[in-house]
Amino acid sequence: MIEFDPAVTSRLAPRWDAERMARNLVRIERRLEHKRISRPWAIAFSVLATSMALLGLFFGLWPAHTPSSGPTSRTTPVPAVTPHAPATETRFGDGSTATALTQGAVLELRTTSDTELVVVAKSGSFRFDVVPNPARQFVVEAGDVTVRVLGTRFVVTRQDARAEVRVERGRVEVTWPNGRTELSVDGSGWFPPLPEPASSAAEPVSSAARGPLAVNERTQFIELTRKGDYQAAYAIIDRAPQLFVGCAEDLMMAADAARLSNHPRQAVGYLQRITKEHPSDSRAPLAAFTLGRIFMSQLGQPAAAARAFAQVRQLAPAGALVEDALAREAEALEQAGQHQAAQRLVEAYLKQYPTGRRSERLRQLVNH
Amino acid sequence: MTLAMTEPTRATSAGRPHLHLVGHGAAPESATRLDLTTVYRLHSAYVATVAFRLLGNDAEVDDLVQEVFIEAHHGLAQLLDPSAIRGWLARICVRKSVRRLRRRRLRQMLGLQDVPEWQKADPSLTPEQMSEVKRAYRTLARFPAEERVIWILRHIEGESLDEIGRLCECSKSTVQRRIRSAEARFDREVCR
User: Fold this and answer.
1) How many domains, in total, are found in chain A?
2) What is residue A175's predicted lDDT score, i.e. its pLDDT?
3) Interchain CB distance below 8 Å, A226 and B17
4) Could you read off the pLDDT of A99-142 as tens digits, one per residue?
5) Is A13 within the bounds of a domain?
6) Would you state the pLDDT for residue A81?
7) Is the Cβ pair A67, B123 closer than 8 Å?
8) What residue ranges of chain B have pLDDT lower than 70?
9) Residue A168, domain member (yes or no)
């Protein structure tokens, strides 16, 4: 009998990146909209389709299933261990665990031997709970930072080449190119440490300025967001906005917390930071799209919404959100009173997507 | 033995996130859409992984994920316990996978479709691991849909019997009976 090795089963996962997520979300919304429009006909059609399918099956004409979408040709390498969703736990052979605390956190197994196990935190935040084993060192690499441990629990949050290490139990050694330190229970810090600022006014949002309280609050925010307690999560970022030094995933979480706790204006700020500071990140088009929807439906600012939808097209000209963004931009411009600009976009939409799902609505918009 | 084979890791569903749905009653249309987007953002990767493992075919994952969230969309407003959303999505995914697998098996029995070869999802798998996975999925392709799903939930997802019962919406004794049957079938097929 085949016994699957957990090392193998953990890799049995599809590549599920932001682009594929966005593409499928768009298709879901289309299918939902299509269902809403065609509901009166749905029953009659399904009866007809079932009859035809049964006939087809009977006569051996059932077509082989052709999925509406397949994997894209993009060749982003899939990491060795990829916890895709928050709180996904990776369990190692000796019972040690790594729990992803942020969405999109990626962990890779680099080397393993009788004396050493090395994992690489490629992005995001992880809690490591290491089973004591004096004969074998557990090593976490995160950018320029290396954490060595013999048996403890600690959190590593990767941010570009730097990493935050917070020890919850036991003791760890943290090394970086020109330095080392040891951290014990409740010890934490960002490494490599930044040089001391020349004056006290320098860089108020620098991660180096975070004290232990801020570090704990940030972890607490991540956990509250993961649990879906957006009100409590937003209370933290409202109290300490400097906790978010700016990686796209952090900003997206902050935007979610703000948006879902009924603070759309604050969500706008975070989403705009994603589009400005991380325009090449795969989350940027979705951030711009969300921005447009907030301006349009929650803040009643159609002109700003139009600019945000236009940005979706600039950020990902061939992305999954482009068709919707173009249509929504036209609608937003019409609402903003810019009829000629709206008409031009409607024409562009109808030329590009003559049978697009929004084509009928847009025709009515310009003929109105 | 390869590196990956000697260092077992396992992705589990431990610590499932809780989700508080917001905005119900205030603005039904926008609230539902907002919630669906959030639920999708938080859970689509998990659903995609379950779908991939059950179907063993990456090309069908997108369709299945879409179907799961479309059904979820209709049920979100009735969901009384938001913290149960992940398990609920998994149940929908399992139910829809079983239907797909039944159709696939029927087409295979009628000679209308070949057994789909398991598709490589991770270039870090070694040739030995690839071969092991392909062999298992080739064997599973001959299983009744329910037994295949239960076998995968048990041996790949690593779920408990109780959890499998919840996911497959059947009793623990049914799960045990199907697992015994699936394991015996697996042994027979592999030894053949």
Assistant:
1) 2
2) 87
3) yes
4) 877 766 778 777 777 777 888 888 778 888 888 777 778 888 88
5) no
6) 35
7) no
8) 1-35, 79-83, 113-124, 190-192
9) yes
Picking from A160, A191, A222, the residue at the C-terminal end of a domain is A191
In a domain, A76, yes or no: no
Per-position DSSP letters for B79-117, written without gaps between them: -S-GGGHHHHHHHHHHHHHHHHHHHHHHHHHTTSSPPPP
User: Does residue B18 lie within any of the structural domains?
Assistant: no
- Among all residues of chain A, which has the CA nearest to that of B135? A2
Q: Does the ipTM surpass 0.85?
A: no
Segments forming the whole domain that contains residue B29: 25-191
Residue B142 maps to a domain = yes
Query: Given an 8 Å threshold on Cβ–Cβ distance, is B5 in contact with A9?
Result: no
Most A CBs within 10 A among B35, B62, B67, B74, hence the mutation to make, goes to B62
Question: Do the Cβ atoms of A221 and A237 come closer than 8 Å?
Answer: yes
- Same domain for A142 and A114? yes
Q: Are residues A228 and A349 in the same domain?
A: yes
Q: Do B136 and A13 touch (CB under 8 A)?
A: no
Residue A99: inside a domain: yes
How far from each other are the two terminal CA atoms of chain B, in whole angstroms? 26
Task: Locate the chain B residue with the closest alpha carbon to A297.
Answer: B30
The reply to whether B5 falls in a domain is no
Distances in Å between the Cα of B148 and the Cα atoms of A66, A346, B65, B111, B136 are 22, 50, 19, 20, 11
Residues B133, A12: Cα–Cα separation, whole Å: 9
What is the number of domains present in chain B? 1
Q: Test A92 with B59 for CB contact under 8 angstroms.
A: no
- A305/A228 same-domain check: yes
Domain extent for A187: 89-191
Q: Chain B: nearest CA to A242, how far in angstroms?
A: 25
- Contact residues, chain B, for A91 at CB < 8 Å: 8-10, 12
The CATH number of the domain holding residue A351 is 1.25.40.10
Q: Between β-strands A116-129 and A137-142, what pairing exists: parallel, antiparallel or unpaired?
A: parallel
Q: Are residues A169 and A279 in the same domain?
A: no
Q: What tokens were used for A199?
A: 């004056």
Structure-block tokens of residue B9: 């890791």
- Kindly identify which residue of chain A lies nearest to residue B60, measuring between CA atoms: A67
In one-letter notation, the amino acid at residue B192 is: R
pLDDT tens-digit readout, A293-331: 889 888 888 999 999 999 988 888 877 788 888 989 999
Expressed in angstroms, the distance from the first to the final Cα of chain A is: 68
pLDDT at A208 over 90: no
Task: Report A:8-27 residues touching B (Cβ under 8 A).
Answer: 8-16, 20-21, 23-25, 27
